[in-house]
Amino acid sequence: MPVPVPQQRSVPAAETSHGDLTLLVIEDDPAGTTITVPELSAAAGTRVRIRTARNLTEAARLLTDDVDCILLDLALPLTGGGAAPGTPTVDAGTSGTGTADSGSLPEPVSERAGELAALTHVLGIAPQHAVLALTAQDDTELAAEAVRVGAQDYLFRGELDARVLSRAIRYAVERKRADTAQHQLTESRLRAQENARLERGLLPTPLLDGSGLSFAARYRPGRSRALLGGDFYDVVRTPDGTVHAMIGDVCGHGPDEAALGVELRIAWRALTLAGLCGDELLSTLQQVLEHERQSEEIFATLCTVDIAPDGRRAGLCLAGHPAPLLARHGMPARLLPYQDGGPALGLLPRARWPRRQVELGGAWSLMMYTDGLIEGRVGNGSERLGQDGMVAMVNSRLEQGLAGEELLEAAVAEVRELNGGELTDDVAVLLLGRDPERIRRWGGSAPPSHPASPVVARPLGAQRPPL
Q1: Mind listing the pLDDT tens digit for each residue in 69-116?
Q2: Which end of the chain, N or C, is surrounded by fewer C-beta atoms within 10 Å?
Q3: Cα–Cα–Cα angle for 196, 295, 339, nearest 5°?
């Protein structure tokens, strides 16, 4: 009776066998083989179990998970016993393999493809097993073609002895393991490259043309080998000349939190360009969060700032987020008021977020950040940097004359140094600035804002650190 194709496991038996090996011999007359089990075991130094099959249907029944290697006679006819229902079939008169699912095995394009029909069939039903091809001694061309199609090695009948077969079995098993590992590594690299391209395309592009404001940002996810984390930010300028800036943090560090952060950022930009601001905007964002989050325990903190067209005042809304840091020309940096902030998004269904008016002045720098910057440790103890420590650190850098990109670079580098290594939480920092003298040098018109792309984690070998 026909038998179904056995289910192939994802890991070949060679990865779990320690010493003992099982060989499945597929040939018309396995009893004619001169190699016996005791001889083979003595040559191998370990126990070798041999199973024999006279045709492919019987081989399919004996092909279980504990088989390490298959020895296939290339002269075995495809007929005689027949193929099992649902198994790959081969038209010996064509040059294609005809296999239904041969994984990543190459298709033999050869005039002798019909002579490899049995091998192609075995490779189709046993993609995770090592295969040895057995052929006549004078047919070197067919033997080499068998290896090109997918066999790990070949043997000649006239030279078949216990020692040669034992060595060939071990070589075939190890080569199959190496090929499988290389294939998995290649797939992993391709997936990583595709994910990197996708994540890079989701990073924000600030829209600040015509504003006259300077912009700098630093971003680093806490997840290893990722470009996106749960932190997110964005900056846009609406047609009325108002500059809107936002920074937020979804609780958690996984890919789901990163995806939710991207959704919230895109929703914020769309709502901002549609004219929403303050409490109305945050209320709508909370609805987006409630519909898109996977659990009711997921929440997000947010800080939004809308800077008037003249650049001298701004509206501030806080949703459970740390207050921004404002540095005016010739004055030390200080935190903006945070007493009137509202709860994080997703905590209270009918929450409200009051908008506070803030005077910025003529020349200023405004730094917005996520808690990953201030929750780093200071030394070997449990003490955290905190907002007060961050303010002192930024002021010391301002006294050194640092600004813009240099200020962020030095500040974040110092935070990492104080932490004793890389920060485990996501970190996002952005810096907006206004310099009236710079605007005057442009003849009263707004100079280009040069919205530089955020510096993100780079691949290994990059010369500049990601933060």
Answers
A1: 999 998 888 765 444 444 444 443 333 333 434 344 444 445 566 788
A2: N
A3: 90
Tell me the pTM.
0.59
Contact yes or no for 204/234 (Cβ under 8 A)? yes
The residue assigned the tokens 């409490």 is: 279
Lowest mean pLDDT among 58-67, 76-85, 361-370, 408-417: 76-85
Element (H, E) at 21: strand 21-26
Nearest-angstrom CA–CA distance, 404 and 345 = 30
Does residue 248 sit in helix, strand or coil?
Answer: strand
Give CA–CA dist 272/237, Å, rounded.
9
Give me 63's structure tokens.
């092909």
Helices (H), 78-231: 117-125, 140-149, 162-202
Residue whose C-alpha is closest to residue 369's, from 243, 249, 268: 249
Measure the CA–CA gap between 145 and 403, rounded to whole angstroms.
67
Secondary structure (H, E, C), 55-70: CHHHHHHHCCCCCCEE
CA triple 327-332-338, angle to 5 deg: 60
d(CA 223, CA 191): 16
Report the side by side order of strands in the sheet with 130-135: 48-53, 21-26, 69-73, 130-135, 153-156
CA 22 to chain centre: 38
What is the number of helices (H) and of strands (E) in the chain?
10, 15
Closest CA to 14 of 178, 173, 180: 173
pLDDT tens profile 138-151: 788 898 899 999 99
